[in-house]
Design goal:
Layout (H helix, E strand, L loop, with lengths): L3 H32 L4 H4 L13 H14 L21 H33 L7 H22 L7 H7 L4 H8 L2 H14 L6 H19 L1
Helix pairs in contact: 1-3, 1-4, 1-5, 4-5, 4-6, 4-9, 5-9
């Protein structure tokens, strides 16, 4: 059984990569929305890498604490969604699709970069360096954590990105009915988390993480 001290140590190492992952995720949404002609997020100060403007009480604080107290082997969460006005997009459906996938794509990029950083630290950083172990641990965790967030956000529940990707292919009437699920999404996610169903996502996450490390290690020889 994992002790309180071990959970605290795990949380302290995971939290910084988690904050970086969700902040870059939301920044990618804001950047892509601006590319498609919607400056709303930029005007509200959300086209920023400042973590304070992206914090969400539930996704950035409560869910990590749930991970801490339940001991579930997956670290999930999200930041405050950036404000998007799809009617301002130059191409409506294309805009919704790519803006929604931008955050997921950013997490995949961060996972690959983190694997590269992990390998570089092991090769070029002295093991006698005081912060060697926590830095390597953060880089290692960042790989799986970013894949976790990418896959988690593809769950088709509003306001997660998977729902927006799906809405890009739905009619306006169907989108309105679909969005009606939003008030219940938190409770559905809590039920999936506490029942252990979300743990099934660990299989694709593990597969992607292991193969990314394998590929990057081949590049570094």
């Amino acid at each position: 059984m994992i002790s309180f001290a071990q959970r605290m140590q795990s949380l302290s190492i995971e939290f910084l990569p988690f904050i970086a992952a969700v902040v870059f995720h939301e920044y990618a949404h804001a950047w892509m929305a601006r590319r498609f002609g919607d400056p709303t997020a930029e005007q509200q100060g959300r086209l920023s890498l400042n973590p304070l403007v992206h914090l969400d009480p539930v996704g950035t604080i409560l869910f990590p604490l749930m991970h801490f107290f339940t001991g579930i082997n997956l670290f999930f969460g999200w930041a405050k969604p950036v404000p998007i006005q799809p009617r301002k997009f130059k191409h409506y459906r294309r805009g919704i699709f790519w803006v929604s996938l931008a955050g997921v794509g950013m997490n995949v990029i961060l996972a690959i970069l983190s694997a590269g950083i992990s390998c570089a630290l092991r090769i070029f950083l002295s093991r006698n360096f005081y912060f060697y172990e926590p830095l390597v641990a953060m880089a290692d965790i960042s790989v799986g954590l970013n894949y976790s967030l990418a896959i988690f956000n593809l769950i088709p529940l509003p306001p997660l990105d998977g729902s927006k990707v799906l809405q890009a292919f739905l009619s306006h009437e169907a989108c309105l009915k679909y969005e009606a699920i939003a008030p219940y999404s938190f409770f559905i996610l809590m039920g999936l988390l506490l029942s252990g169903v979300l743990s099934l996502l660990s299989y694709p996450i593990y597969f992607l993480t292991e193969n990314t490390f394998h590929f990057i290690s081949l590049l570094f020889q």
